[in-house]
Amino acid sequence: MKKIVSIFSWTTLLLLASFIFVGTNQASAKEFKDVPKSHPNYEAIQAMQKAGYIGGYPDGTFRPNEKISRKHVAQLLEKAVKLPGLSSSKVIYTDVPKSHPYYTPIMKLSQAGIVGGSNGKFNPNSTITRIQMAKVLDLAFDLHMGPYQRPFEDVNSNHWGYPHASAMYSSGVSKGDNGKFYPSRPVTRAHYAEFLQRAINVTKSRPNTTAMTKGKAVDLSYRLPHIIEGIILEGKYKKKSFNTIRPQLLQYVTKEFADTKLKNYYPHACTECDSFYFPYYLDTSIRFSFNQPNSYAVNVKTVEFSDGLSGGGFVDYKFIKESGTWKMANYTYEMVGKRHLQLTVNEAQTILKQDYQDYGHRNVTVSYVSTVRDTAHDYKADQKYSYDKYVFRVETNKGRFKVSFQSNDGMHYED
């Protein structure tokens, strides 16, 4: 029996050493035989090795194309994000007993809500897919979503991993491959080293402050509405009562907001309409502002531009932190009317330039031509009102375009 235990312990130590170093002081700058300088992930692998997060095998190889397992991901992240100690020694996965060599990192990440299991198991030896990796890195490093409606064509907005893939894209951790993320592909050791290094660099580049930043305020303004809307639409599609989906909503909203505005809206939610409760695309560069009255509350003011489906309007969000988690506490939307956006010429130029760049145009220049007066209808007041309509000339690598821009709601179109 002693011999069996010794063999098991030695094998375990070898496996541990194959991917994880004990600490940064033990890290070396050695080269791996199978990772030449021409390897696309060479720099990331070397950087993560130097930091003490990863290691190679006893034969001097790194085996970059080998698929990484869930247990190794847990061990690696536990070193990189420095999670707090375990608050409980309870076993929550039947396949990760206290004697498991990866028990501590797996439990630390589970305690932090970064990883989870299914049917009482963690499946430590299973591979991790790219979308699962996106979730883990998103939650571990608090990546931020941004104003990208659908960065990857194979991860649509209904996909459970959409917020995580979107955050990976917006944060610059992953740009995909020709517009695709390949969510079901297993992650290799080389790719994980690359993604980990990028995620670490994102956090290092942020301001060293505990105060709310614009990046986080934008993230909350996109992430929470998307998740809440998804819960509501799924509930309606499956014909669930509001009380049935309420516990799920309370992970992301306050009780007061759930039991008033969301409860009142739920009977009217439509699963086959092009209109939604929350705005789909917010302005985050021209009219986005936020304030933090205290460390547990954030107020966001922004606008939604008209896009043919929405008429444009003023958007206000209130977020509150409960037990360390940001939740939506209030939301108001006011459609443009007699009170409208009144976008300036300079603001319109900025919007147009960004839009054309987002659609693949390069060398974009936007020149002001003229202003004309136009009228629109305020449906709430049932009155007409006037506003400025600008005319611009847009020149790009794809041609020259005459564009009309409505200052009241941000709608623009080529003449």
From TrEMBL:
Keyword Membrane on entry: no
Signal peptide: 1-29
Lineage: Bacteria, Bacillati, Bacillota, Bacilli, Bacillales
Protein name: S-layer homology domain-containing protein
Keywords: Signal
InterPro entries registered for this protein in UniProt: Cell_Envelope_Struct_Comp, SLH_dom
Domain SLH: 28-91, 92-147, 148-210
Keyword Signal: yes
